[in-house]
């Protein structure tokens, strides 16, 4: 008896599912815009409530067909929002960022506009690539978060916005630092000193600042000891100054011991030079 009831339940569920699919396909193919609107809205609500991407994907197919037709109409604002948010929930962040951006411009007085500003920025944040790649989307995300923060300094999402902004800026810092550090890696020490110095001046709050100070010193030190003899004294002097900069700011830093060893070698070389001169 139990197995029979289970079979009946399974059959009923199958029939209902097939019926729902059949109805969806019918609405998808016909020209009834109102029917498409009603079903898209219903599927969206179900998808959000139940956490089902399959519902959201079906809703999106219908929304693709009808959103342009509702622009300027009373239902347009609602459709524009769920269209943007469906992309967002499905992880289509390129489209979500663009659609939320359009929403903020088309409906600046909407009760959803703050959320739209935030989610537009968050979408660009999600597509921001690792630091070694082109950072166009990173700059875009920073601009969008800055726009949100300026408009809503006490907004609902302000804490997250500031955190994401800091992450994006850190990524740009890392890229700038790695570009400068690359000169050191390729043993172009003059270029390394210049690039690392520029990084220090341009990024006073960066978490890569200690490394920049150290490798600036390291570059100067290596350049000095590899130079022609007549250039060594002046370059050792410069390297010693860079050591003093580093150790002043980072007396217990990650590279402090190594820096002190280089400094001791500089002093020994300077003593020999002074003796010989």
UniProtKB/TrEMBL annotation:
The keyword Membrane applies. Keywords: Cell outer membrane, Membrane, Signal. It comes from the Bacteria. It comes from Mesonia phycicola. The keyword Membrane applies. PROSITE patterns: PROKAR_LIPOPROTEIN. It holds the Pfam family YfiO. This is Beta-barrel assembly machine subunit BamD. Gene3D superfamilies: Tetratricopeptide repeat domain. Residues 40-193 form the Outer membrane lipoprotein BamD-like domain. The lineage of its organism: Bacteria, Pseudomonadati, Bacteroidota, Flavobacteriia, Flavobacteriales.
């Amino acid at each position: 008896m139990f197995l029979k009831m289970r079979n009946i339940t399974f059959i009923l569920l199958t029939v209902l599912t097939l019926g729902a699919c059949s109805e969806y396909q019918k609405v998808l193919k016909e020209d009834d815009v109102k029917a498409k609107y009603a079903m898209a809205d219903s599927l969206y609500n179900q998808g959000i409530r139940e956490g089902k991407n399959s519902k959201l994907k079906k809703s999106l197919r219908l929304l693709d067909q009808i959103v342009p037709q509702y622009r300027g109409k009373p239902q347009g604002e609602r459709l524009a929002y769920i269209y943007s948010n469906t992309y967002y929930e499905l992880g289509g962040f390129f489209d979500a960022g663009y659609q939320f951006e359009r929403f903020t411009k088309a409906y600046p007085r909407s009760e959803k506009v703050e959320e739209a500003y935030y989610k537009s920025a968050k979408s660009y944040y999600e597509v921001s690539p690792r630091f070694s790649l082109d950072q166009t989307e990173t700059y875009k995300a920073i601009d969008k978060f800055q726009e949100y923060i300026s408009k809503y300094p006490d907004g609902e999402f302000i804490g997250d916005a500031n955190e994401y902004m800091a992450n994006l800026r850190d990524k740009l810092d890392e890229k700038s630092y790695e570009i400068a550090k690359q000169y050191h890696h390729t043993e172009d020490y003059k270029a390394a000193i210049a690039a690392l110095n520029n990084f220090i001046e341009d990024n006073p709050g960066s978490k890569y600042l200690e490394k920049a100070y150290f490798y600036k010193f390291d570059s100067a030190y290596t350049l000095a000891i590899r130079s022609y003899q007549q250039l060594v004294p002046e370059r050792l002097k410069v390297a010693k100054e860079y050591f003093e900069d580093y150790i002043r700011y980072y007396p217990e830093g990650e590279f402090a011991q190594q820096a002190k060893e280089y400094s001791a070698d500089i002093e020994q070389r300077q003593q020999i030079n002074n003796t010989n001169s």
